[in-house]
Design a protein that fits this description.
Layout lengths: L2 H22 L5 H22 L3 H25 L4 H6 L6 H4 L3 H8 L5 E4 L6 E6 L2 E7 L9 E8 L2 E6 L4 H13 L13
Helix pairs in contact: 1-2, 1-3, 2-3
């Protein structure tokens, strides 16, 4: 075998190995440049070995080169997430429940639809509502509602509840007053005293 043919095959193998390493090792493109020069030298040695004497072998070598380069890149990106290094470097895709913003808050608020609470501030149309010791941001359906009035939660919008003025049934009033007296929740801030 001609020494040019040996160099052509060796440089092809070395170039493909460096190309595979480029996928796994962050080099800022340096390994890609080295791969390019190794593959160009491989083609030059292949031409000297087979270009004029055996052109069919040279064309097969070029076809192999054209098929192997993308195959090695695809193989590298296929294998990268499956290696321990790849698992440390690449981020995992988030769960679908994490993609929806405020999913936990939305599910909590949607369970409150139909419950009654009292307004802490004037809803004009926005303000605060107290529901069993929990302060919620609320929007009225359009009318202003004075502080201390009973309201019913009718819908949610984002992280706020939509309320309308209403008096709770007697059982709901009794349950809510007993629940709020059993488990008072700490307030995150206090309202200034009215003078």
């Amino acid at each position: 075998m001609d020494s040019n043919a040996v160099f052509a095959v060796l440089l092809l193998i070395i170039g493909l190995a460096i190309l595979l390493a480029e996928v796994f090792i962050p080099s800022g493109g340096l390994l890609g440049v080295i791969t390019f020069f190794a593959l160009v030298l491989s083609v030059m040695f292949a031409y000297q070995a087979w270009g004029t004497s055996h052109p069919n072998i040279f064309y097969v070598f070029l076809i192999m080169l054209v098929l192997l380069v993308p195959s090695v890149v695809v193989f590298g990106f296929y294998m990268l997430p499956r290696t321990s290094f790849g698992k440390r470097v690449l981020l995992e895709a988030p769960d679908s429940k994490d993609l929806k913003p405020y999913a936990r808050e939305m599910s909590h608020l949607s369970k409150l639809v139909g419950h009654y609470g009292t307004t802490l501030t004037m809803l004009n149309p926005g303000g605060l509502v107290n529901l069993d010791g929990e302060r919620l941001h609320a929007l009225s359906e359009g009318l202003s509602i004075e502080p201390g009035e009973w309201v019913e939660i009718v819908n949610i919008r984002g992280s706020s509840v939509i309320v309308r003025a209403g008096t709770p049934p007697e059982t709901a009033t009794h349950e809510q007053s007993s629940n709020s007296s059993e488990m008072p929740m700490p307030m995150d801030f206090e309202f200034p005293a009215e003078s």
